[in-house]
């Protein structure tokens, strides 16, 4: 999981800046998905055929494969270049802004703390 997370972060960081992701990052994400292949399993529920997606393999490999698949979906999405990093000093989260002027991952969390700190600096006794 840690390796998949690091490779996903590296690939996303480069892609969001319009750069080519490193070959080893893409290869690692592909390998993680291959380790626990996903199948669409068909079942009869008594009145209709239902389809559900499931992965085979050990639990750790399935989890890593799901993370790698989510990263692959994000990397293949044209909006990957719009991803931003939160502007709060102590936040490491990335987000896809719904508005071009959005600066924080969460207005309620990071945005509020930045505004409170700014207010405190303006009204701090000299």
Automatic annotation (TrEMBL):
InterPro entries of this UniProt entry? ABATE, ABATE_dom_sf, Znf_CGNR
Q: Which Pfam families match?
A: ABATE (PF07336), zf-CGNR (PF11706)
Domain named Zinc finger CGNR is located at 82-123
- Region Disordered: which residues? 1-23
PANTHER family attached to this UniProt entry: BLL6575 PROTEIN
Q: What is this protein called?
A: Zinc finger CGNR domain-containing protein
- Name the species this protein comes from: Actinomadura verrucosospora
Species lineage: Bacteria, Bacillati, Actinomycetota, Actinomycetes, Streptosporangiales
């Amino acid at each position: 999981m840690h390796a998949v997370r690091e490779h996903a972060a590296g690939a996303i960081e480069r892609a969001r800046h319009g750069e080519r992701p490193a070959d080893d990052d893409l290869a690692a994400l592909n390998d993680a998905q291959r380790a626990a292949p996903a199948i669409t399993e068909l079942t009869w529920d008594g009145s209709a055929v239902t389809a559900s997606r499931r992965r085979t393999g050990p639990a750790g490999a399935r989890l890593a494969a799901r993370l790698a698949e989510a990263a692959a979906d994000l990397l293949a999405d044209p909006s990957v270049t719009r991803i931003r990093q939160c502007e709060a000093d102590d936040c490491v989260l990335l987000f896809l802004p719904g508005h071009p002027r959005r600066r924080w991952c969460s207005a309620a969390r990071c945005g509020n703390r930045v505004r409170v700190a700014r207010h405190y600096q303006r009204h701090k006794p000299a």
